[in-house]
Structure formats: structure tokens, C-alpha cells
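Justification of computing resources. Each target in the renewal requires a structure prediction run like the one illustrated here; the chain below, 350 residues long, is used simply to show the kind of job we budget for.
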Amino acid sequence: MAVSEVLTLTVPLLLAGVGLCGMLTGTDVFSALTDGARDGLKTVMRIFPALVALLTAVSMLRASGALEALTRLCAPVLAWLGIPPETAMLLLVRPISGSGALAAARQQAREAALYRDALRAQLTEEELSQPTVPAVPVPSVSPAGDAAGELTRAQEALASARSRYDTLLGRIRALDSGSDLADQLAQKQEELARLQQEYDAIALAMTALEQANTILQNRFSPALGARTAEIFSALTGGRYGKVLLSRDLSLSAEEAGDPMSRSILQLSQGAADQLYLAVRLAICGMVLPAKKRVPLILDDALVTFDDTRLRAALDYLLAESAQRQILLFTCQNRERDYLAGRENVNILTL
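Resulting C-alpha cells:
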């Protein structure tokens, strides 16, 4: 049978034995019980004032720091004797009152448990995974020898818990002081204000660009479409008479006499290249100042044209050359052969 089971059955067996002895001896067990209870109450009333005064004095000493100072003073001697310094209070109280010493021991055990719970609430998962101080249960009323052992274990647990608590508290205080946090907050606020100004400037620029884009679409697109249509009609021999530009500047064209527009994706490759050339020439004519006669530079712009489209494009460029200089670079001989001998045409072979 385990020791704990024996201890559990001790009180019931004791009560049963007392009752059995009373029956055998003819003693009035109930009267004896009430007399004992009355005497016990008298004893409690007699020692209660002293016990309260003793516990109050111990609490006052601990609150004032005098008990800790006395413990530190006695620590070298107690350590030399092999006695834990934390038992100094028990050593002082025990000669006066055993019950008071036991109550003080239980109070210290409660404080150790409170320290443990407070630390556990502050620890992270990583800290909790480390070996922790075992919980020390509050000792129950027991003989003086058992109480001393319980007290020793409680004092050791309390010392370890306090040491760990002080370490964690120092670590928390070392993280950052209040002034450092205030400085960091001020820096972040300044950075936020600067970023807000940049954001406001970008937002204002985006608004201006959107407004400019709207004006461009409303004013420039119709004029560009009309000028592109003139050039495209000249390049195609009058086959296409209208060019449309949507709000996103995508192109479509209408054949002469046909109201249905065709997207540039639906045109043949040759017609699409003619339309792109017409758009580029129209933009240059609208954007470049006419008085300065800025030259145009075309690099193999007609390489995909067939002979018919090539001749139509060269005729238009030749007529346009009366307004501005046009530099046409090409790796083919078709342009040179067609323009050879024309007025105001210079051919250079590189």
C-alpha cells in the first residue's frame, strides 16, 4: 500500500479507534468530544491575539525591508552553517511560536507560487520551453520536521523564482527606455509627414496628368484623326476616307462610301503599315513648329510596302519635302530607283 493511501486512511481509522475504545471502556464519547472542543476553543482564543500580533509584526518587518536587511546580514553566517538564508525569518519566529513560524512558512510558499504565476504570464513560448522552477504546493499543517523540509524547498523555489524574475525584469527594462521610444516616435512621425507630402505631390501630379490626358483626348484626338485621314487617303489612293481614334488612341478606319469602321487589327498588313505611317506624319505635322522646318528622319519606314504602296508613299513624302527636309534611310534599292532624277532629291550610298 502506498504511503499516501496510508496517510489518507489515518484520520478515519483514528476516529473509529477512539469510538471503539470509548464503547469498550464505557466512556461517553460525545461528551468527551464536546468538552475537548470547548477546551480547544479556549486554547485558540488564548493564543489568537499573540498569533495575530506575531504575523502582523512579521508583515510589518517585511514591508519595511528590515527583514530583508536582517536576512542579508545573517546570510554569510547561515551559508557557512549550511542553512538557506531565506529561513532567517523562520529561525527568528520559531522560538517564539511554532504556529506562527508555520504560518509564515505557508505565507512564503504562497508568495513563491504568486511569483511563479506572474513569471509564467510574462514568459514567451521559448522561455516556457526551458526548464522551469517546479511548483511548490502550500504545505498543510504537519509536524515540525516536515514543516522545516517544506519550508526549505519553498525557500529554494522562492529564491530561484525571484532570481529569474529579476533577470526578466532587467531584460525588459534594457529593451528601451521611455525617452528612446519618444525619440523613435518623433522620427517616425517626421518620416510619415515627409512621405505624406510626397504622396500629396504624386497625387496632384496624377490629377494634372489625368486632366491633361482628358484635354488631349477632347482636343487633340479629333484633329489628329482628321489629319491622319487626309494622309491615309493620299497613301491609299482615296480608298479610305476616315480615320477614328478612340479615347485610348486605338485606331480604326472607314473605307470611302462604307460607314462601317474597321479596327487596325482587321486591316491587311500593308494597309496597317500605311495607317501607322499616316499617324506618324500627322503627329509630326501637328507637334513640330512649321516655322522652324524641323527635318523628318525615317529609318526603313517603307520596308514592308509593296511596290504600289511604296510609290504612293514616296510621292507623298516628295510633296512633303517642299515644307521640310526628309531623311529616308533604307537598305533597299527600290526607293533609290524610284526617286532617281527627281528634283530636290539627293541620294547618298553609305
